[in-house]
C-alpha cells in the first residue's frame, strides 16, 4: 500500500498529466504538419495510458533483488528475464555477447604500520531495515583494473587529487615520489586520480568519500537517512576512460570471438599503480596520523580532525591482488521494424549491470526503457522508423557492452542511426538533459508537453523557474538567449560510443535535484534505499518514461527530422568566445603573477613561518589566430540563413534532407581523433583528459590552452575549422534541396 505522500503525488501527477494532454492537443510539433501534430499528440496520449508505476516497481524488484554484477549468475538471469520481456511484447530480440577482461578481488588489505598499527576493515556493514544489505554474493569494495601489487609508503593527502591540487602541493614543498597518496572522491573521474598520482611518482592510491561531500555533514546517514555512513564505500572502475571506452584489450575494435587482443601490459588504458577505495571510517585514523603542514582551507573536509598534508609519519602497506579473467558481457537488443522508414533507426538504451543491487544505478533508468518499450508495443500502429531498445552489459567496468556493440556495428550505425537516448539512473526533481545541440528546440518541446507531478507545471516551465531562481549568471543568460539550453556531453555512460566515437546525435536524461543521495556504487544502492529516499512510488520514473517516449515517438514518426543546426552554430560560437576569453585571461594572469614573482612581492605576501611558497614562473602565453574558426562559422551561418524546411515537401526530397540532417553530426568527427586519444573523434565535445566524466567543449583547442601546450592550439584550430566547413557544405546541400 502506498503511503499518503506518494498517493498524493500520484494523484497530482494524474491531474497534471490530464491537463498537459488537454493543453498540448493544439500545440505544434517540430517536423510535423498541423494534422500530423494532432495525430501525434493523440498517439502520445494513448502511450501515456500504458505507463504504470506499479510496472516500474515490479521490474525494479525483480532485477535488483540480488547483486547482478558482470559475470555473476544473477547478471545472466537478468539477461534472460529482459530478453523474455522484450520478446513477449513483440520485439525481435537478440543477445549480443562479447568477451571482455574483468578483474575481481582476491586480496585486499590496508594496514597502517606507523606511527601506530591500524588495520582497515574494508567492509560495509548490513543495516537494519534493508534486508538487501545482508545479501550474499556481493562484490566487496574495490577499484576495477587496479594492478596487483604490495606497496609500503608514507601517506600524503592531496585533496581531490586534481592537477591543480598537485600544483598547490608542490608549493608546499611536498613531493609524492615513492609515497602513497590518499585523496577524496569528487571533482574528477576516479580513474584520473591514480593516473595523476602515478604521473607524479606515487606508488599507490587510496580514495575515500569525505563526509563533507557525502556523509553526515550533508544529512542523516543510512539507514536513518540517505547519506553514506562511516562504512560505505564507492566502488568503481579506474580504467583510463578519457583515453577510450570499452574492453581494455580491444581498444577501437569489437571484442568478438577470434578478435586480436592486446596483452594486459600493453593495454593503454590500464592503470599503473595499486588503488583501493575506502570508507571515511577507515580513512579517519590514517588522515589523523598524518603530520606536516596544515592543509589549506579548501582541502579540509568534515572529519573531526586537523587535515594535514604530510608526508608521513603515517605509513601504510597496501596489498591488492585480483583474479584476471575473461567474462562474457551480454547486451539485450530489441528491435521493432519501422513501418515507413525501416532503414532509419531510433535507439534507446541503458545498462543492466550493477556493482551490486544497483536499484538507482542503473535499474531506475532501465525500468523507464522497459516502460517505454512495453507502451510503444501496445500502440495501434508501428512507429515510422525502426526503434531499437537496448539493455547494455558491462557498463560499470568501462561502458563495455555498448562500446563493443557500436564498434561491431559501426558501418550500419553510421548509415542508419538517427538518435541515441540514454537514461543512466533516475531520481526526483528536475529533468536534466545533455546532448547534441542541434536538438535543443526538440528537447525543449518535449519538456513542454510533460507535466511535473509536484507542481503541475510543465517540465520546461519548472526548469525555467529553477534557472531564474537559483541558476548562475551564465545559466540565466543562456535561458534568455537560447531558452532551455542542453548540457554538453562528457562521458561516463553508454551514449559515449555512439556520440564521441561514431558521431550519432545523442542525449542523456534523468530527473534529479530533489532525490536524496548517498547510495552511489555502495552496498546500499538497494530497492529499500531507492523507494524510501530517491523516488517513492516511482512517480518520476513515469515522468522520465513520458519524456523519453515522446522523444522516441516523435523522432520515429516525424516526416521532417527536427534538427536545427542554428542552435548548434550559436552554441559553438559561445564555446569559441569562451576559449578566446580563456586565452586572454590566462595571458593576463600569467603576466601579472610572473611580475609579482620576479619582483619578490609574491614571496613577501606569504607567511615566512609557513611552508607555502610562490608558484614557479610560467611561460608567457602567445596570441592565437582563431580566424579559421570564425571564417568557418560565417560559412555555416550563410548556409543556414534563410533556409526554411517544411514537412510539406514531397517525400523524395524529405528523404534526402532527412539523411543529410541525421548524418550531419558525423562531419564533426576527425578520423584520427584527438591528440593522444584517437578513440574520441568528436571535435566539439569530449570528456576532459583530466576531468574524465566532465565535458570539455572544443576539446583540442581548450585543453591545449589549459594545459599550456601552446604548440597544439594551431592544429586544433585547423581541425575544428575543417569540421565546421564540412558541416557548412552539408547545410548548403540541405538549403538547395529545400528550394
Q: Average pLDDT, to the nearest integer?
A: 95
β-sheet strand percentage: 15-25%
Q: What does the largest sheet look like? A: 12 strands, mixed
The coarse overall form would be globular
Structural class determined from secondary elements: alpha/beta
> What Rg, in angstroms, do the CA atoms define?
26 Å
Helix content: 25-40%
The poorly predicted ranges are 1-18
Cα separation of the termini: 60 Å
Count helical runs: 23
Number of strands: 16
Task: Please give a structural write-up.
- By secondary structure, this protein is of the alpha/beta class.
- Helix content is about 40%, strand content about 15%.
- It has helices at about 5-25, 35-50, 55-65, 75-90, 165-170, 190-200, 210-215, 280-290, 360-375, 400-410, 410-415, 440-450, 460-470, 475-480, 495-500, 525-535, 540-555, 565-600, 600-605, 625-640, 650-660, 700-705, 715-739; strands at about 90-115, 120, 145, 150-155, 180-185, 205-210, 235, 275-280, 315-335, 340-350, 385-390, 415-420, 430-435, 505-515, 685, 695.
- α18 runs parallel beside α22, α21 (about 650-660) packs antiparallel against α23 and α22 packs antiparallel against α23.
- The termini are far apart.
- Mean pLDDT is about 95; it is low at about 1-20.
Amino acid at each position: 500500500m502506498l503511503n499518503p505522500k506518494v498517493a498524493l503525488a500520484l494523484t497530482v501527477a494524474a491531474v497534471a498529466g490530464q491537463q498537459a494532454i488537454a493543453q498540448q492537443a493544439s500545440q505544434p510539433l517540430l517536423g510535423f504538419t498541423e494534422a500530423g501534430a494532432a495525430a501525434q499528440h493523440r498517439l502520445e496520449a494513448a502511450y501515456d495510458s500504458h505507463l504504470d508505476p506499479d510496472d516500474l516497481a515490479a521490474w525494479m524488484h525483480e532485477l535488483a533483488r540480488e547483486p547482478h554484477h558482470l559475470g555473476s549468475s544473477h547478471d545472466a538471469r537478468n539477461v534472460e528475464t529482459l530478453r523474455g520481456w522484450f520478446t513477449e511484447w513483440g520485439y525481435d530480440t537478440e543477445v549480443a555477447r562479447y568477451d571482455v577482461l574483468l578483474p575481481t578481488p582476491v586480496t585486499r588489505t590496508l594496514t597502517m604500520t606507523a606511527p601506530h598499527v591500524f588495520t582497515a576493515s574494508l567492509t560495509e556493514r548490513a543495516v537494519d531495515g534493508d534486508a538487501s544489505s545482508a545479501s550474499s554474493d556481493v562484490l566487496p569494495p574495490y577499484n576495477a583494473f587496479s594492478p596487483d601489487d604490495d606497496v609500503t609508503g608514507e601517506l600524503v593527502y592531496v585533496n581531490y587529487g586534481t592537477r591543480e591540487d598537485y600544483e598547490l602541493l608542490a608549493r608546499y614543498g611536498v613531493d609524492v615520489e615513492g609515497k602513497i597518496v590518499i585523496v577524496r572522491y569528487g571533482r574528477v573521474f576516479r580513474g584520473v586520480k591514480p593516473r595523476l598520482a602515478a604521473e607524479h611518482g606515487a606508488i599507490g592510491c587510496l580514495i575515500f568519500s569525505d563526509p563533507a561531500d557525502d556523509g553526515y555533514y550533508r544529512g542523516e546517514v543510512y539507514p536513518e537517512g540517505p547519506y553514506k555512513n562511516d562504512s560505505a564505500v564507492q566502488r568503481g572502475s579506474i580504467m583510463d576512460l578519457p583515453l577510450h571506452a570499452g574492453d581494455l584489450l580491444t581498444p577501437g575494435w569489437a571484442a568478438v570471438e577470434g578478435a586480436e587482443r592486446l596483452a594486459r601490459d600493453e593495454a593503454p588504458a590500464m592503470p599503473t599503480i595499486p588503488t583501493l577505495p575506502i570508507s571515511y571510517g577507515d580513512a579517519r585514523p590514517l588522515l589523523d596520523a598524518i603530520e606536516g603542514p596544515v592543509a589549506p582551507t579548501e582541502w579540509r573536509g568534515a572529519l573531526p580532525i586537523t587535515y594535514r598534508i604530510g608526508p608521513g609519519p603515517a605509513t601504510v602497506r597496501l596489498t591488492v591482488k585480483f583474479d584476471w579473467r575473461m567474462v562474457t558481457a551480454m547486451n539485450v537488443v530489441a528491435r521493432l521494424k519501422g513501418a515507413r522508414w525501416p532503414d532509419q533507426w531510433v535507439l534507446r538504451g541503458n545498462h543492466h549491470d550493477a556493482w551490486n543491487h544497483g536499484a538507482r544505478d542503473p535499474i531506475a533508468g532501465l525500468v523507464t526503457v522497459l516502460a517505454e518499450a512495453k507502451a510503444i508495443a501496445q500502440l495501434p500502429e508501428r512507429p515510422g522508423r525502426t526503434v531499437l531498445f537496448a539493455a547494455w552489459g558491462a557498463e560499470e567496468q568501462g561502458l563495455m557492452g555498448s562500446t563493443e556493440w557500436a564498434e561491431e556495428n559501426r558501418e550500419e550505425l553510421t548509415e542508419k542511426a538517427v538518435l541515441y537516448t540514454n537514461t543512466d539512473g533516475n531520481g526526483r526533481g528536475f529533468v536534466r538533459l545533455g546532448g547534441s545541440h542541434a536538438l535543443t528546440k526538440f528537447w525543449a518541446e518535449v519538456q513542454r508537453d510533460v507535466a511535473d507531478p509536484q507542481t503541475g507545471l510543465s517540465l520546461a516551465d519548472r526548469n525555467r523557474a529553477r534557472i531564474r531562481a537559483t541558476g548562475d549568471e551564465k545559466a540565466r543568460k543562456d535561458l534568455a538567449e537560447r531558452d532551455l539550453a542542453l548540457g554538453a556531453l562528457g562521458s561516463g555512460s553508454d551514449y559515449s560510443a555512439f556520440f564521441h566515437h561514431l558521431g550519432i546525435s545523442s542525449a542523456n536524461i534523468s530527473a534529479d535535484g530533489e532525490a536524496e543521495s548517498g547510495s552511489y556504487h555502495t552496498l546500499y544502492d538497494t530497492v529499500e534505499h531507492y523507494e524510501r529516499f530517491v523516488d517513492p512510488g516511482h512517480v518520476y520514473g513515469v515522468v522520465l518514461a513520458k519524456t523519453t517516449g515522446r522523444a522516441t515517438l516523435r523522432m520515429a514518426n516525424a516526416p521532417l527530422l527536427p534538427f536545427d543546426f542554428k542552435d548548434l552554430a550559436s552554441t559553438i560560437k559561445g564555446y569559441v568566445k569562451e576559449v578566446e576569453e580563456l586565452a586572454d585571461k590566462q595571458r593576463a594572469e600569467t603576466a601579472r603573477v610572473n611580475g609579482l614573482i620576479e619582483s619578490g612581492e609574491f614571496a613577501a605576501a606569504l607567511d615566512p613561518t609557513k611552508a607555502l611558497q610562490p608558484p614557479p614562473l610560467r611561460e608567457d602565453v602567445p596570441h592565437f589566430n582563431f580566424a579559421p574558426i570564425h571564417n568557418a562559422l560565417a560559412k555555416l551561418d550563410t548556409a543556414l540563413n534563410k533556409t526554411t524546411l517544411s514537412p510539406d515537401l514531397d517525400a523524395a526530397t524529405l528523404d534526402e534532407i532527412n539523411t543529410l540532417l541525421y548524418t550531419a553530426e558525423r562531419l564533426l568527427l576527425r578520423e584520427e581523433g584527438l591528440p593522444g586519444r584517437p578513440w574520441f573523434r568528436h571535435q566539439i565535445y569530449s570528456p576532459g583528459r583530466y576531468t574524465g566524466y566532465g565535458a570539455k567543449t572544443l576539446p583540442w583547442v581548450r585543453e591545449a590552452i589549459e594545459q599550456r601546450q601552446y604548440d597544439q592550439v594551431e592544429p586544433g584550430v585547423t581541425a575544428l575549422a575543417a569540421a565546421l566547413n564540412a558541416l557548412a557544405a552539408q547545410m548548403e546541400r540541405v538549403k538547395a534541396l529545400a528550394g
